[in-house]
């Protein structure tokens, strides 16, 4: 990153820091009576987008999209952020092993957040044989 780009990036991040939630914001949200009040409070702070409505998942998705958009705008390589997907990838690995060993079809247990901004996702090559339920109980 060149000197001008670095100066711009630092300035842009400092401006974005002003919109972060403070300790007093968190305290106020804790004191609110219900989820609808918290959502309204966050929307008053500029969270979400016009099409996110009152849905908390859509509000968080909109904020995540804004954050990734900022990283793209600043020209930061996506590989820098791959480490952030590790908890989601680990969760998906555990969910996959559990699904295979129990024979369940619980595809709802998988996290889609692992790919949310990372350029690559691990996939099993088609030539690799699929593990079977019988192989789960055997020691390696």
Can you describe this structure in just a few lines?
This protein is mainly alpha-helical. It folds into two domains: 1-76, no CATH class; 79-140, no CATH class.
Give the structural class.
Answer: mainly alpha
What kind of sheet is the major sheet?
none
- Number of domains in the coordinates? 2
* Distinct helical segment count: 5
CA(first)-CA(last) distance: 47 Å
Strand content: under 5%
Provide the low-confidence segments as ranges.
116-136
Helix amount: 40-55%
Gyration radius over CA: 21 Å
Categorize the overall geometry: flat
SSE succession: HHHHH
Mean pLDDT: 77
Q: Give the strand tally.
A: 0
Q: What topology does this entry show?
A:
Layout (H helix, E strand, L loop, with lengths): L2 H15 L5 H9 L3 H10 L11 H19 L11 H17 L38
